[in-house]
# Entry
Amino acid sequence: MEVSFMSYILLAIILFSMGIIGVISRKNIFIVYMSLELMLNSINLMLVTLSKHFGNMDGQIMAMMVIAIAAAEAAIFLSLIVALYKLKHSINIDDYNTLKQKGTL
Amino acid sequence: MHIGLLTFIIFLPLVMAFILMVLPISMKLTRNIAFLTTIVVFLLSLSIFLRFRLTDYMQFREFHPWISTYGIYYSLGVDGFSMIILMLITTLIPVGYLFLWKTRKSKGYWASMLLMQTGVTGALLSLDLILFYFFWESMLLPVFMIIGIYGSGNRIFSTLKITIYTIMGSLFMLVSILYLGVQFYNEFGVWSFQLSDLVQITIMSPTQQTLLFFGFIIAFAIKIPLFPFHTWLMQTYSNSPTGGVFILSSIMAKLGIYGIVRFVLPLFPHQYVEFAPYFMWLGVFGLIYFGVAALMQQNIKRMFAYSSASHLSLITAGIFSLNIYGMTGAAFLIAAHAMATGGLFLLVGTIEHDLGIRSISGLGGIAKKAPLLTVAFALMILSIVGLPGTNGFVSEFLIVLGLFKYNNFIGIVSATTVLVAASFMFWMFQRAILVKTDNNISKMKDLDKKEIIGIFGLAVVIIAMGLYPHWFLYKIEPTLQHYLVDILKVGVSS
Amino acid sequence: MSNYLLAWIVLIPFVSSVILGISYLYSIKVKKISNKFFTFLALLAPMSSFVLGVGFFFGLKNGVSEYLYEPYTWLGVDNYIINMGFLGDKLSIFMVLFITFIGSMIHIYAAGYMKEDEGYGKFFAYFNLFVASMLLLVLANSPLIMFIGWEGVGLCSYLLIGFYFSEPLNVVAGNKAFIANRVGDFGFLVGILFLFVYVGKLGFSYGALEEYVGIVPNHILVIIGVSLFIGAMGKSAQIPLYVWLPDAMAGPTPVSALIHAATMVTAGVYMVARFHFIYDLIPSVGVFIAYIGAFSALYAAIIAMRQTDIKKILAYSTISQLGYMFIAVGLGAYSSGLFHVFTHAFFKALLFMGAGAIIIALHHEQNIFKMGGLRKRLPLIYIVMLVANLAISGIPPFAGFFSKDEILLKAYEHQEYLIYGIGLFTAALTSYYMFRFFFVTFEGKNYISKNLEPISASMKIPLVILAIGATFSGFVGLPEVFGGTNMIHQWLSNWSVDSTHVENFKEIVLMGISVAAGLIGIAVAYVKFFKYDFNQDIKESGIIYNKFYIDELIDFLIIRRVRQISVFVSVVVDDGIIDKTVMLLSSGFINLGRRVGRMQSANTRAYAFFMLIGLSSFSLYLIFKLG
Amino acid sequence: MKYDDIIYLLPLLSIGVGAVVLMLLSPIKSFSINRLSWVTLFFLVFAFGATALNFGHVYSATPFKDIFSSMLITDTFSGYFSSIIITGGIVTVLVGSHYFEKANMLRGEVFSLLLFSVFGMMLLVQTTELLTAFIALEIASISLYSLMGFQKNNVKRVEGAFRYLVLGSIAGIMLLLGTTLMYAGTQSTNILEIAKYISAHPHANTTLVITGGTLILITFLFKIAAFPFQNWSMDAYEGAPLPITAFMASTFKVAIFGFILRFVLVDFHELKSIWNDMLFYIAILTMIYGSLLAVFQTSLKRMLSASSIVHTGYLLIAFVSISNIGESAATSIIFYLIAYFLSSMGAFGMLSYIASDDHLRVTYEDFKGFAHIRPYMAAMMSIFMLSLAGIPSTIGFIGKFYIFVGAIQAGYTVLAIIGIFATFISVYYYFKLIALMYFYPSSEMTNVPPLKGMTPLFIGIMALLIIWGGIGNTLISYFPGIDFLIDTARFAYQSLFM
# Structure
């Protein structure tokens, strides 16, 4: 059966929203990271869909590039997580508040 | 490209200041060279005074493009009104040096004094509003330094206070200036911040003009200071060293008045005339308010702060009196009061230098130890209280006459000036100088030669201006007539 | 006499005072200068001015209407031109003559009186400055120039009263004098300004004013007259501004003699006479002045009755005598007033100098009830003081009789019977308290054992001269009744109004009455005090003795209130309200910042959420924008 | 014409090559830190020279059209910004080599990463293609993340880097999403073609484009720390090592503005008025928030970070007025950027130079009496403070002058007044430092670095530039004055439309 163009877009939008909500609501840094990746990939999905829709390969290429970038981000992200865990012994994102503003009322 | 006399007057101190700071020379040498510099500047301005023609337009013009994209020019000029203030400044500053001579300050002190002179003269002579703002702001920094570094008491607080307070005012002015410039651009299609250009703007609605008018006025009112904006004055005066308070009281405050006459008057003649009565009343109110407040002050500098605020209010009333007498008197009182107050602060400075900072009740019996100082002190006080025969009287008489011209009642109220100053000045003189108390004033020394030269030179001028005022006045009258007749369009001889 | 010499009449004392001042500073700072130098300079000045004055006197006598010298434009703004000008007409030369004459006398006297004082040079510097200002006051040809001298004498009296400035009381007295005078000057200035505003542009010399005063509306003229008179009150110590004069006795006695007897206090009278062209137009104000004068005379006399300090007595008598003068000028009889000024100058200077001699002799004792029996020990002083007392009591043929009696006569002629009565009564009182002092001092029983200070010749000579003056100066104005020609009236003909003249018989009767009043006063004093012995000492209390508590009242009602207001203004309003507001604004902003700082909670999710809010607000905005 | 194209691309190429070379060199032990820093400097200076080749005239070219299909454009605009960015890189290296040495975290990689981020920024100001922009942004950001978190054992660093990473990648995703929407709307990601499309279609049909543009705008607002998206900056700036903070606060901001100006002016010059009302309030809020934040800080670093938010606000004022007075507003932004760059780079650089030896001097209090120990350093610091506060006779004043004049001219007097208000507040927290440095007796300070070497020299030069930019005047023997700076900015602007 033929799945319509809009449904892909909708799926992408849903994924994106999940990503955003995940970043905001989840405390576990891994899940936060995954939500970010989710957002990226939803965009990839969107791009691929679009390239299918327009009938050319531009979108696909873009998706490739995005994936590359995402990989780079992943590297730095994970290394920072490791460093943070070493220092804080916690993966709760709310525990990382060393830089809290001092002298507030 | 020719560089004129005014440029030298303005920038010679600046250049010297940098040279002196960079060269590895002793404090004494620095001081002496700085003093020489001021003398040279004095001679230059004297030559201007002598070559000044008896007309109402700007003379010794200098005009060079600076930021041509926005039509900002380096344009200088002097007319009768600014000339008398220029003479005043360039005369007073060397006198100040003679008194600050023995203060063991660092090189930076003298450098800052020179910088300050540049700022003041620049603000005085510039005819481009941006240029004026430029000097107006930059003359604050040396004072900031002088008070902050060499001041006493809670100096840092008061330094920040005066700086922020005055900068607030001048920022209001900046907005108004920019707005004017834009209006000029909208009307004529070219950028210019020249005073002579901005006065031609016609497209502004009265509301806009009124707002801008107050934008300017606030800046100057803070500097002068007028009634509600005066609270920085007392702390600053009482905490700042002799040099700083001397500059502030006798020169910078006067520049506030000058700014009103030079810029507000031609730019917003209608508002000037419209609001003149309020400012007259404000001035007279301030005269009495500050005078009364001064009566019970314990700290001499604080008392003088109030007293000069009181006089400056009177000057303000004078320039707003919308007739030639009030304005001439104001111009004359600017000079008179600058000399007297400056002299007083310098004398108080020597007392502080010998005895340390004391309240009035901590002094007394100085007259016996230092008769010369006492005589000088008395002369200055007499000029302050406006005794006939000193320049103080002539100016106060003219201002009061001007106010009378406007309205008999306000004239009568302002005539209380003969009472206000006398009431606290003589009392202070009695307690601080004359009457012998059991305070230890053994360290008190009389004036030394330099100080004698300085202060009695001042005294001679004060008396001369009192006995033959006309010779000093006739050069400024055409300018003021021009302001009144051509700009404000208010009848003069009526 | 050429005109420019008028200026020199003023300049000579001025220059000499400047030189004196500088050389005095030199002598205390660098090396001592002998008193001879000072004496020479000091005495030279008034005498040479006197000589010049005499010259001008004869010039006028020989028919020169007036001398006028205007060296330069003092102040010229727009069309208001004021020249620095000196006017030598009959009035001013008349004043110059007796100022310089009495001045020279007092200079000579002071040379002896002050000789031990280390402030010798300073004293004469002030003295000559005073003379200069006084001469400027009378010679000026425009009110403003006059005002320079007017304030100058005020300043000098401040300086001289506070001459021994180490003692607080003297300086306080000086301040009091200066401030009281300033109150007067305020009025004077207001008067001048009104004149200036209304007729100034037509010229501001007396001549011009006299010519154009007509154009001033009448109610303004009344204001002017009153305000000018307020100035006179201050200078001439009339109610209510008399308070400074008694305290002014803190100064050295010659000062009291010169300033507070002979010259400065008469400035007010001179001023009214000088402005006669105004007061002629507003007789109502004149009458008001006359009444003020009358009441001042009475009031001062009453207080004087109970004083014990010799100089205080004389001070109050001065106020009282000045009251007489104001009666005269108020009623338009300027010449009579000036006549009294003239005679009064002699006998009052004489009284003060005699008192000074006594004080010196008794080692600065001033309480008359600690004196006594001085007749034998100071015969010369006794004689001159007797003359002076008779003169002030108005006993013929001494000077006071003629002038005072003429004033009373004028009051009578103007049908101002109340003023006449007061004057008469005051005359009686005057002779009473004067002779009270006289008897107690010279006849009193409480013999002072301590040996007396010798009195130098330079003090005696002027006493004698003035005594002669006090005796005969009255004959200058010998009334027609006695076949005399009143020279004063002739001289000051412009200033003497010939009102309805009473017939001679009545005039003689009136004279008799006033003489009788004087004699009664003396008699009472004689009875009470001639054979007075002092087992019980005099009671120093009572409302009169305390001058009706006026000083206390002023202190309580005005001075303290003003100080309270001052504290209120500077502490409550300035620091409390205005500055507090400014500070609150700044600290408020900073605190707001501290609150806002909470947003930097270093919570990643919170930040992200904040971003999301921004994002969604943007999208909402777009939705509205694009519809 | 290949030769010219190479000349045009030379700066970018040299930086890229340099980055790679340094990456390869860094493991080699024999290469001392010093030598590496010299190599870095060499590449940077070379790139600067290459940029300088094209100074002085208006030009615009798309090198190697056939290869890059006009994704890259080099014009006066990009040259202007590239030179600023490279200068930033130079200062960072100079300051950083000294700083990292003391902080014993110096490895060769630092320089490599630095060059990479410089490369990214230069690419950002030269690209005309949105995806390239995204990639350039990510290159710059990622190398910054790693520079920030370089000291793994310092929790502040790592945490700052982490937070910046999380939020930054969200922003990046916004940009990407925006690009996607644009692509969806116009089938292209090239700015010029999108512009053509917009001008060809009425607004109604460009909803996708506008939405995409909005998202891109949000990314931009995030990166320059404008109001609702500013929170990260405080933490990131404080977390990062001082030289990196300087680099981020001044240089990166310049690069972002370079990109967004090109984007808005070329692409959306017809639609940009759409966002005005929003940006209006954002500018106001940014200034006020920044002032509120800065006014109570005790740590200088945080104060400077907060004040950089305020300066963002000033820039936004001009950004708003672009829609009414295109040229002068854009010029004023371009001018203010260099003013702000000089001032804040100098301030941060000086701070890091002073603080490098012992990390004692971080708060206001620590600077009490500093002027008595190092008068010249204190003088430079004061100059930077004055310029940031916009006191006349510094370039900061001239920059503010243009922005406010532009705002008033564009009819946004309110913005000008609020900007003035923020300036007035800023006087307080800038002058406080000067007061503390000068008005206290010299307290003994442990090993303050002496005033010698390249770093202070360079900072001093920047201070002089600030003064010259404030009073520079053709009076002084026809030395290029302020007019020269303005004209350069204007050329940069004009080159966008060739």
Residues 62 and 68 of chain D are 9 Å apart (CA to CA).
